[in-house]
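Weekend entry, working from home. Most of the wet-lab plans are on hold until the incubator is repaired, so I used the time to fold the two sequences that have been sitting in the queue since the last round of cloning. Logging both here for the record. First:
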Amino acid sequence: MKIVIAQMEHETNTFSPVETPWESFGPSGPYIGEEAYRAMKSTKTPIGAFIDVAESVNAEVITPVAGFAYPSGPVSGEAYDRFCNLIIGAIQEDCDLIMLDLHGAMVVKDRTLDGEGTLLGKIREAAPFTPIAVSLDLHANITAAMVNNANIIVGYKTYPHIDMYETGALAGDLLLQLHRGEINPKMSWSNIPLLAQTLKMNTSEGAMKEYAERAALSEQNPKVLVSSAFGGFPMADIPDAGMSAVVITNDDEQLARTECSEILEVAWKQKEEFIWEDTPLKEAISHAKSLAEGPILLLDHPDNCATGATQDTMTTLREALEQGLTDIAVGPIRDPEAVETLILAGLGAQVSLPVGGKTDMPAINKKGEPLQLTGIVKNITDGSYVITGPQFTGVEASMGRTVVFDTGDAEIVITEKLQEPWDRGVFTSVGIEPTQKKYLLLKSRMYFRPVFLPIAKHSVYCAGVGVGSSDWTMFNYEKIRRPIFPLDNIKS
């Protein structure tokens, strides 16, 4: 048996000015062929699980491509075409099953608003009868094209996403059951006009927890194979953005439809609970200053690269320094220009230079505002480390060339590439021990939780500047379906 396994992951923030070329999908672009197999095997990711599932039945594994890019602006058409051609080329060489590690919120420049649905449509044309299993992120914006062109769709159940591997394993196992004739999957999906904010999608608390628990409850029915409750990705200005559910039953279409409806009803009844309200930045920093014991997390969530932000706005750090905070570890901040300058200056050199603020954000009418700083080049590394935390475990992370710039009050990790702080390795790999700092300024909104929350005494959300903002009034939605809450006042 031959199984084609591929990864194409990108969450597209259509308001982001950050470009997403082919090179963004890995340390130097996506992994191809055998390189993809070697890079992703033994990782706690959906594609890692797919490989394990396939090898458990002694299948021949074909991995044409594996690529993950940080959320950013629309994917280039050239990159998307290369992904599609590699995957379809492998399928056309004859295979028995297809397993795809996708995100569910990819927008492609000059191609499609539904990268995953369009890819699946192309695959279905090339292989009309080959069973397809797909793993999706909890933030997927589900479309009819995705559901109509796949046999199995399974979404992450957690946010932060600590069940990536389990999601892939379940999707792969269900596909094998289908192949053996043990099940007859019937898949139904539906959505609601609710643009929930990601800061309200923590599956361990509040309305999101109840929503996820209702999906889990449906799986207690022996006829239900899997229920996936999707939060959606709100920073995508596309018609299908918003909350959705996908339910797969064993040969019971009506049950699948009923469960979808009831799961989504739980979310809709609490729609106001999915809206985030920020504390003003000055007030948040002042509160952090009043706290005695650290580490204290300063969460600069609007500039979070895992939401598609630039990761270089300096508003929060500027405010922290102006209010006199000291003993701060900051990062990562993406500024290739500053990295180059500091490396040329050399280890131990004292340098004055503008840091961050190199990227304009026309979607929110903001110009980049660098912060002039003076400090010492404390460390220089290649920015590589292996993730040991529960998200992307075993994956080699690449921050690009990285510099620790010590201003006295703050040690700033400055990188060439975007990097979400999903692992303490963003600090420990460059010689900073985060447990020993009073403040940790992280450009993160949710993924910090599994690794940084256990060491923190306090967490303070900081309403800085960025295209990951939770203030909907900053964005001009043009393509999204209307009416939709909270952009429109829907009362029932």
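Second, folded right after the first finished:
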Amino acid sequence: MALAIAHSRGLDGLSAPPVTVEVHLASGLPIFTLVGLPDTEVKEARDRVRAAIVNSGFDFPSKRITVNLAPADLPKESGRFDLPIALGMLAASGQIPASALNDCEFAGELSLSGELRPIRGALAMALQTAGSGKTFILPEESAREAALIGSGNILAARSLLEVCAHICGRAMLPGPAPVDSENQPIFPDLNEVRGQSQAKRALEVAAAGGHSLLMIGPPGSGKSMLAARLPGLMPMLDGEAAKASAAVLSLVGQFRPEAFGVRPYRQPHHTASAVALVGGGNPPRPGEISLAHQGVLFLDELPQFDRKVLETLREPLESGHIHIARAARHARFPAEFQLVAAMNPCPCGFSGHSNGKCRCTPDQIARYRGKLSGPFLDRIDLLIEVPAVPVDALGGAGDGESSASVRCRVEAALARQRERQGRANARLTAKEVDTLCQPDEAGSRLLKQASVQLDLSARAWHRILKVARTVADLADSASIRAHHVAEAIQYRRLSGG
């Protein structure tokens, strides 16, 4: 009888609880039993591990093999347990020293040849491993991703044979290769957008305060162009925000190390389901709103989304996180995203256009706009019209400021917000709005007058104050004045209160 223990990590939302891989060899008929609540991917490890061990030049034990993945009540998924299972077998059969497994944690999927393939969630697992003091051995590509947490206990391996050589002390594994930061994605420049000075200003305000934005205009007016340029107006992510964003993308295998610190930009199609946006499945995985964490979620053709899908955005817009509850599993994912949406003014798209092509009836327009509920619109900070661009403005060079110059003002405004309250204005609580966003006397009178005329809700009142605070920050003003409030009110005219 022989017993060996290897250490690994599971995934439960963004958490990576430790998993102990126990391998027991006993006399009897050759059989390979895998227990510990494994899913289909984990069960298939029996065939991958057998082939990988043999093709790496080791002997596969002709024993009664029992592999236990503890704790037993934690569901295990994906092929990340292939490597610790194989190492446990080799240690239990005496082909590698079992004591050398105690100081390391392992994760990696094995090919039939013994090569290591990358896994999902490497960065999330590395965040948890950093506090354990153990060395974390990962496939080469996954190690580059995990090394971004700044921990020095990450090693990269290309095959099972390399890991065994390291454990036996014959050849030490290297650290992950450095990430090439020169090829970071660059978002398109704002000066490429013709005209639309008001929309550009609204985009700057949205970037400076983390505010949500809805653009209404005819087809071809530049709504999608404006939305695609919003991430370029925002500063690069750093510190914990960059790690949190990367960890969420890592869970679904969509993170690229060279894009570390770049704000994500997600644009789901209008046929996306509620689960696609919110997240779900078994085990629960993040949806588009979490994949856009610390970045931008762009919803084009907003009324074409199912109304139930849009209503699921209400809670995360307020709270900044999403809690997925299923019968057997619960998961909590961050969802601090900036919502940017675009829609046509009517079904045909040309209501109010100078060409007079619109033939939609008032009832058709009302039904079209009625797809967006009042509570949903109430949670959007900025609502602007994006008119058609005149023909004269389409020719010649681009006009307006570049993204770089606008980003300088945005960074300065965000620096004031971090110094004052530690986060963007859009994330202020009601109590903080009362203390930090009070306008002067003239501004208060103007806001009260607008509240009566526009029939503003309490939520809309608070959102106007937050936007006014951002406008004042862009102007480097310590106080909120009447013209700051007036600009903020201008961005609520389409909400209907």
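Plan for Monday: verify the second prediction. The two ends are 74 Å apart (CA to CA).
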